[in-house]
Design a protein that fits this description.
With 349 residues, the protein is an alpha+beta fold. The protein has three domains: 85 residues, Rossmann fold (3-Layer(aba) Sandwich), CATH 3.40.50; 61 residues, Dna Ligase, domain 1, CATH 3.30.1490.20; 166 residues, ATP-grasp fold, B domain (D-amino Acid Aminotransferase, Chain A, domain 1, 2-Layer Sandwich). Helix content is 28%, strand content 28%. It is built from eleven helices and 17 strands. The strands form three sheets. Strands 9, 10, 11, 12, 13, 14, 15, 16 and 17 form a nine-stranded antiparallel sheet that branches. Helix 1 links the parallel strand 1 and strand 2. The relative contact order is 0.13. It binds adenosine monophosphate.
Length: 349
C-alpha cells in the first residue's frame, strides 16, 4: 500500500499527511478550497466538493485506502467509495456521529450513559420537553453543530423558550438534560484492522466560548474513571467494527461517574498533545491503523498541557518558541480570524 486519500483539507488532514509521510506513504487530499492546510504538505489535492462523484472516483483510483478528517463527510460519498476501496473509519461511524439523537441512542445501546434527551421537531415539542427537564437543558441542532455553534442553554425556569425553535433555524433539534459536571475529559482510542485496541491516557479539557482552550494530561480523575473511559471507547470501537482513531468526550460527575457527550470518528483536537508527550501521536496511530501496521500502545513519556492558538493568539508564537518545553504546531492558515484555530502549543511538565 502506498497512497492514502484524505477527505477534508483542514489542520487535522495536514497533521495526518505529515504523519503518513514519515511512514513513507503518499497522500492526496480532496477539498474544495485550494491550497488548504492539508494540501500544503500532501502529495496532491483534488479541488472539488466532498460529494462530487467524479472527484470521488478520481480519489479512489489514485489511492489504496481512503480516510477523512471531519465527520460531516456525506455518508453516501463514503459508501460509494467503499465499493472500490477500503474506507476507514467505516461509513457507519459517520452515520452515528452526524446526528446527536442517533449518536445518543447508539451510545445507550452500547451500555454507555449519556445525558437524558428529547428529539425536538417543533416549538410545541420543545416546550413539552423543557417542562420535563424543569426548564433547564441544552438545546442543540441534531446535525452540523460544532464548537458550541447551533446551541442554546436554558439555565432556569425564567429562561423563555418562545421563538427558540425558529432561532436555531427551524431544523431538527435535541434537548439534552443539563449535566452538572465537575470536569470534562476525552479519550483518544484506536482500533486496527486486526481488531487490536489501544487507548491514549484521558485528557482533561477546558472550553472557552464553546471552543477547546486547553487539554491537560494526566486528567485529575481517579483510576476507576480512567478505566471506565477506556472501556466505553472500546465498546464503541467494537460495536462499529471501527478501524482508525476515534475521539470520545465525556462529562465527569463529582462521584467520578462518566456521562458520554459525543464521539468524533477521526483524530481529535483534544489529542494533539500526543505528538509532544507520547512516543507515537494520534495522527501516526491513525495512519498505522488504516494501513494495517502495528498500533502503538499509547505510551506517554510526559505530562503536558496543549493550548489552542485561536485568532490573534498566533501573535504569541515567538514567545512560545522562546520557552524550553514548548512544542509549537502551526496550520498554514494565512488569515487569523476571530475563533479560527491557527495552531496549537503543547508544553511538557
Ligand atoms: P458539544 O457541542 O456537545 O461538544 O458542547 C459544547 C460544550 O457545551 C461542552 O463541552 C460542554 O461544556 C457544554 N455542554 C454541552 N452539552 C451539555 C449538557 N448536556 N450539559 C451541560 N453542559 C453541556
Amino acid at each position: 500500500m502506498r497512497t492514502i486519500g484524505i477527505i477534508g483539507g483542514g489542520q487535522l488532514g495536514r497533521m495526518l499527511a505529515m504523519a503518513a509521510a514519515r511512514l513513507n506513504f503518499r497522500t492526496i487530499v480532496l477539498e474544495p478550497q485550494a491550497d488548504c492546510p492539508a494540501a500544503q504538505v500532501a502529495n496532491g489535492q483534488i479541488v472539488a466538493a466532498y460529494d462530487d462523484e467524479r472527484a470521488l472516483e478520481e480519489l479512489a483510483a489514485a489511492c489504496d485506502v481512503v480516510t477523512y478528517e471531519f465527520e460531516n463527510v456525506p455518508v453516501s460519498a463514503a459508501e460509494r467509495l467503499a465499493r472500490s476501496r477500503p474506507v476507514y473509519p467505516p461509513a457507519k461511524a459517520l452515520e452515528v456521529s452526524q446526528d446527536r439523537v442517533v449518536e445518543k441512542q447508539f451510545l445507550n445501546g452500547c451500555g454507555i450513559e449519556t445525558a437524558r434527551f428529547h428529539a425536538i421537531g417543533s416549538q410545541a415539542e420543545l416546550e413539552h420537553a423543557l417542562a420535563d427537564f424543569s426548564g433547564i437543558g441544552v438545546l442543540k441542532t441534531r446535525r452540523l453543530g460544532y464548537d458550541g455553534k447551533g446551541q442554546r442553554v436554558f439555565r432556569d425556569e425564567s429562561d423563555k423558550a418562545a421563538g427558540a425553535f425558529d432561532a436555531l433555524g427551524g431544523v431538527p433539534l435535541i434537548l439534552e438534560g443539563f449535566v452538572a459536571f465537575e470536569r470534562e475529559i476525552s479519550i483518544i482510542a484506536a482500533r486496527g484492522i486486526d481488531g487490536t485496541i489501544a487507548c491514549f491516557d484521558p485528557a482533561e479539557n477546558i472550553h472557552r466560548q464553546g471552543i477547546l482552550h486547553t487539554s491537560s494530561v494526566p486528567a485529575l480523575i481517579n483510576e476507576a474513571t480512567a478505566v471506565a473511559a477506556r472501556s466505553a471507547a472500546g465498546a464503541v470501537l467494537e460495536a462499529l467494527g471501527y478501524v482508525g482513531v476515534i475521539g470520545m468526550e465525556f462529562f465527569v460527575l463529582a462521584d467520578g461517574t462518566l456521562i458520554a457527550n459525543e464521539i468524533a470518528p477521526r483524530v481529535h483536537n483534544s489529542g494533539h498533545w500526543t505528538e509532544a508527550a507520547c512516543v507515537v501521536s494520534q495522527f501516526e496511530q491513525h495512519i498505522r491503523a488504516i494501513t494495517g501496521l502495528p498500533l502503538s500502545n499509547g505510551a506517554r513519556h510526559s505530562g503536558c498541557v496543549m493550548q489552542n492558538l485561536i485568532g490573534d493568539d498566533i501573535n504569541g508564537v515567538p514567545a512560545w518558541l522562546a520557552k524550553p518545553n514548548a512544542f509549537v504546531h502551526l496550520y498554514g492558515k494565512s488569515e487569523a480570524r476571530p475563533g479560527r484555530k491557527m495552531g496549537h502549543v503543547t508544553w511538557l511538565r
